[in-house]
Specification:
463 residues, alpha+beta, Uridine Diphospho-n-acetylenolpyruvylglucosamine Reductase, domain 2, Vanillyl-alcohol Oxidase, Chain A, domain 3, 3 domains, globular, binds flavin-adenine dinucleotide
Length: 463
């Protein structure tokens, strides 16, 4: 990594979604020996063979939002950048779309919009289709249609030996199951075929509430998670304390995928409160995701982490209090901005087919809340201290939630820190099954050796 501090001016030099785009500054600072930009599956297969022969290490980049640096760029190794795999083909019967692994959701939604269609995918435009989908994928449609990983019909995958597989539920059922949550570990996916559905305009936006509404927001959020009966309504909560004075702002991101009015009743409890601002309106999915994109600035230094807890009001509030304490320790870090996310994982989001998925979440565990940190800052000198405080936050939340019985082992891969044992969080039975699948398709165990930068099935630690 470069030793240069990331300044705000330096941050702005990061290009907007070019091949060198990475969401986190730490990834942009890694210097690979070589960057390969394949234009088709044959290029990817040939590249893997060369990597193997040379004994180099590699990393794969799709949309570039990986929350930890080594996951998506290979220091002194080969970075395989999929950004030229951009084909998007809607099927003749309009029920599916084949997407190149380098596409971002904004591009996909725009194309689907022209056909009156949507798909289960990311909530911001710049996020990559393949990274988000293979890690799980929480969407504006997940209560009705499940996670993104459970809405894939087929994958084109290049194995460590260069062989290309077409994976469907019928052709390779074991691998098809494993792809749902651990797809990035088996090889390089070059194309995904996703289910589509008819979609017109949706209702949605973000409403921000001042600190005085803290109690009411947590009450309303907890009630929404436990009692909402409308599968078309989705909401998640984002807490931030920009001034770090203990006066957090609470932002509800709300959506309804078939709005009959500007006021979907599912959100009545939030609408009783007066927001500082609100962007809720009826609009296209792409328009909504573009707005969300503009709220999530790339190029800062970031630290994330993911945990999950059973949804209990007192736990949700306790976590916010632990977060306040942690953030107070970082008051001297210039440019530090903390975001704490509460993302519901509901029983309705579990796969409805006979395949299941690798995530290891059971109906009786629900509702869960994914608790993710998205902390950002500008100066490299604060990296160590901020990471230590983030780790202490995790320890404190784990201790508190184990003590009150609301702890859950699941960690969401797509927001996890590089050293979290995500696949252990899927449950030991699922980890064992995933390891068996991995050794069947990669008998020499090449993938973990050639691609050491990603979170490994075995749980070996990354930095
Ligand atoms: C601002 C922001 C908004 C987000 N919004 C959402 C959201 O709405 N819902 C949600 O569920 N998550 C969301 N996430 C989390 C997101 O799902 C993850 O960051 C995800 O890893 C992004 O995928 P990517 O393709 O953009 O990233 P990349 O960094 O390109 O990929 C992520 C990881 O997957 C691997 N990978 C990617 N593609 C392939 C492939 N084709 N073959 C093999 N390995 C591959 C990469 O090597 C890397 O390790 C968000 C993250 C951010 C930063």
């Amino acid at each position: 990594m470069s030793s240069a501090a990331t300044t705000d001016a330096g941050r702005k030099a990061v290009s907007k979604y070019g091949t060198d785009f990475y969401f986190i500054a730490q990834s942009s600072q890694i210097v690979p020996a070589c960057r390969v930009l394949p234009i088709n599956v044959t290029d990817v297969s040939e590249t893997i063979k060369i990597v193997r022969e040379t004994g180099a290490t590699f990393a794969v980049k799709a949309g570039g939002h990986c929350p930890y640096p080594s996951g998506t760029n290979a220091e002194n190794g080969i970075t395989i950048d999929l950004s030229r795999l951009k084909d998007i083909t809607v099927s003749d019967n309009r029920k599916s779309v084949a997407v190149g692994a380098g596409c971002r959701f904004g591009e996909l939604y725009q194309k689907l919009e022209a056909h009156g269609l949507g798909c289960v995918g990311g909530r911001i435009s710049s996020v990559g289709v393949s990274g988000l989908t293979m890690g799980g994928g929480i969407s504006f449609f997940s209560s009705e249609r499940g996670l993104a990983c459970d809405n894939v019909i087929s994958y084109e995958l290049v194995l460590a030996n260069g062989e290309v597989l077409n994976i469907t539920k019928k052709s390779l059922p074991d691998l098809f199951w494993g792809m749902r949550g651990a797809g990035i570990t088996f090889g390089i996916v070059t194309r995904l075929e996703l289910k589509t559905f008819d979609l017109g305009e949706i209702w949605g936006g973000a409403s921000a509430f001042a600190h005085e509404h803290e109690t009411a927001i947590f009450d309303a959020f907890n009630k929404f998670v436990h009692t909402n009966q409308d599968p078309l309504a989705e909401a998640f909560l984002l807490v931030t304390d920009m001034a770090r004075d203990g006066n957090s702002v609470y932002t509800m991101v709300m959506s309804h995928s078939n709005p009959q009015s500007e006021n979907p009743p599912a959100f009545d409890d939030f609408k009783r409160l007066t927001p500082l601002f609100s962007s809720t309106q009826t609009r296209t999915l792409k328009n909504f995701c573009d707005e969300m994109d503009s709220q999530n600035e790339s190029g800062f230094r970031y630290r994330t982490t993911s945990m999950s807890v059973k949804c209990h009001l007192s736990t949700l509030r306790q976590i916010a209090a632990i977060h306040d304490e942690s953030v107070a320790l970082l008051k001297d870090c210039a440019g530090f901005v903390p975001y704490l996310l509460y993302q519901p994982l509901l029983e309705a989001m579990l796969p409805k087919d006979d395949v299941g998925n690798a995530l290891g979440i059971k109906p009786e565990d629900m509702p869960l809340i994914d608790i993710s940190l998205l902390w950002r800052w500008t100066d490299i000198q604060h990296d160590k201290h901020i990471s230590q405080v983030a780790d202490q936050f995790v320890e404190k939340v784990e201790k508190a939630t184990r003590a009150n019985g609301t702890f859950h082992r699941y960690q969401y891969l797509n927001y996890a820190a590089g050293h979290q044992d995500v696949y252990g969080g899927y449950g030991e039975e699922n980890r064992k099954r995933l390891l068996e699948i991995s050794s069947k398709y990669d008998p020499d165990g090449l993938m973990p050796k050639l691609r050491p930068g990603i979170i490994q099935l075995s749980g070996s630690q990354k930095v």
